[in-house]
Amino acid sequence: MIRRITIIRTGTTGNTFNDQLRGFATSLGMLGERDRDKSCFRIFIELLKTREKELSSDDLAEKTGLTRGTVVHHINMLMDRGIVINVHKRYRLREENLENLIVDLRREMETALNELNTQAKQIDKFLHLLE
């Protein structure tokens, strides 16, 4: 399985709840320069608000005022990053709360980095870079 986990160090996120939420989303790559309408962030907020149930792409389009195509594009990106999961053609956040989401993402990153470290050692050994 290929998964892209994006972490952007943003520094302080501000004092208000909205500032912190935007900072959190920015850190996970949801507020990029190309997404001028903050579509991905809007979808994330709707999923966060309704975390106890799954929403269809049509539900999300209606709640956010976005086209279904835009919703599907961003949902696919959020699924690729391990933030959202698909349950019978409906979508929800991977975890009930954001802290658990970060714990899971950290676990995945540590596994990926450990595997990468093993590969690096093998390449170094092959190239005689290890002493």
Would you give an account of this structure?
- This protein has 131 residues and is mainly alpha-helical.
- The protein has a domain at 17-95: Arc Repressor Mutant, subunit A, CATH 1.10.10.10.
- Helices cover 55% and strands 5% of the residues.
- The protein has helices spanning 17-27, 39-49, 57-64, 68-80, 98-126; strands at residues 84-86, 91-93.
- The chain has a two-stranded antiparallel ribbon with strand order 1-2.
- The mean pLDDT is 91.
Please outline what is shown here.
By secondary structure, this protein is mostly helical. The protein has a domain at 17-95: Arc Repressor Mutant, subunit A (Orthogonal Bundle), CATH 1.10.10.10. Helices cover 55% and strands 5% of the residues.
Outline the low-pLDDT stretches.
none
Largest β-sheet summary: 2 strands, antiparallel
Q: Any idea what the radius of gyration is? A: 18 Å
The CATH architecture of the domain at 17-95 can be given as Orthogonal Bundle
